[in-house]
Design goal:
By secondary structure, this protein is α+β, with helices and mostly antiparallel strands. It is built from seven helices and 13 strands. The chain folds into two domains: 143 residues, Winged helix-like DNA-binding domain superfamily/Winged helix DNA-binding domain (Arc Repressor Mutant, subunit A), CATH 1.10.10.10; 73 residues, no CATH class. The protein has a five-stranded antiparallel β-sheet, with no helix packed on it. Strand 1 and strand 2 form a beta hairpin. The chain is rod-shaped and about 135 Å long.
Length: 281
């Protein structure tokens, strides 16, 4: 005698044949064995939370299979879709976060027995069970083993790049290599030449004053006229020898003046040998 559950007076569930039967529409749905076993355990424990570990052990462990909780959730999802398709009112199977699943006390479930099904129906059920078991076994192997797939020789040949593509790639690599080497050589040449190049001194913007002395006097570019600097030289009786260069710096309106006297111009390649003086007024 098979056990038949009458759920909410709208649905018949046969855990032996793993079938759902709508009383209203007379539609039948055959469940996967794990989903059917989970549903059967939830019905037997109506009003109590059934943990994930219990469901995994009941639906897979007792049959020598080991699956992940993700497989359990997939089967619960398929079971809910089947119940929804047969128009079962409300949420029959409740999810209790981090604990498991349950069917509430308020759900009406009646239990009665019926005569054995025809022999051919049993054979069909056994064939279906064997098919589902084989599919689940294959799924298990795919999940846990993840075997590597060897590429077929024909497909491997199709992935080989043509000679023209390889040649263009090699040419591009050579061009990048030559460009990189050239840039490196230019950088080394610049580093080698830079110390010997003649650069402008801090006094490159200075302009020369008209003086009667034999030396050269240069002033900074400022708001003052040349007369201010020539008067400064006369007032302080500043004289210089032939070939020397005098750099005068003053910034308007300050009266402080800097004076640098050099044996050679600072921008020349010779050593300058300079002396400096600072005048407050």
């Amino acid at each position: 005698m098979d056990t038949i559950y009458v759920i909410e007076d709208t649905l018949l569930f046969n855990p032996t044949a793993h079938t759902l039967h709508s009383i209203k529409s007379n539609e039948h749905i055959t469940l996967a064995i794990p989903a059917s076993l989970c549903f059967d355990l939830l019905i037997k424990n109506k009003g109590r939370i059934v943990t994930q570990a219990e469901l995994l052990q009941n639906a897979w462990g007792e049959r020598g299979m080991n699956v992940t909780p993700n497989t359990l959730h997939q089967n619960i999802s398929l079971l809910r879709k089947s119940l929804k398709r047969l128009e079962v009112k409300g949420t029959l199977i409740q999810t209790i976060p981090k604990r498991g699943f349950m069917i509430g006390h308020e759900v009406s479930i009646l239990n009665h027995r019926e005569g054995p099904p025809p022999e051919n129906a049993r054979e069909m059920a056994e064939m279906r069970d064997d098919t589902v078991l084989a599919e689940e076994h294959d799924d298990k192997e795919r999940i846990h083993d993840q075997p590597s797939v060897e590429p077929q020789p024909g497909k491997a040949k199709e992935k080989i790049a043509p000679a023209g593509v390889i040649r263009r790639v090699m040419q591009r690599k050579v061009q990048w290599s030559v460009g990189g080497i050239t840039l490196l050589l230019l950088c080394l040449l610049y580093i080698h030449i830079k110390p010997f190049s003649t650069t402008d001194s801090p006094f490159a913007s200075y302009t020369q004053l008209a003086t009667t002395n034999s030396c050269k006097a240069l002033r900074n570019d400022d708001l003052r006229f040349d007369e201010y600097y020539t008067d400064f030289l006369k007032e302080h009786n500043i004289r210089c020898s032939q070939g020397q260069t005098v750099y005068i710096t003053n910034h308007y309106p300050s009266s402080r003046t800097s004076l640098i006297v050099c044996r050679n111009a600072i921008k020349s390649n010779k050593k300058s040998f300079c002396t400096s003086s600072y005048y407050l007024k």
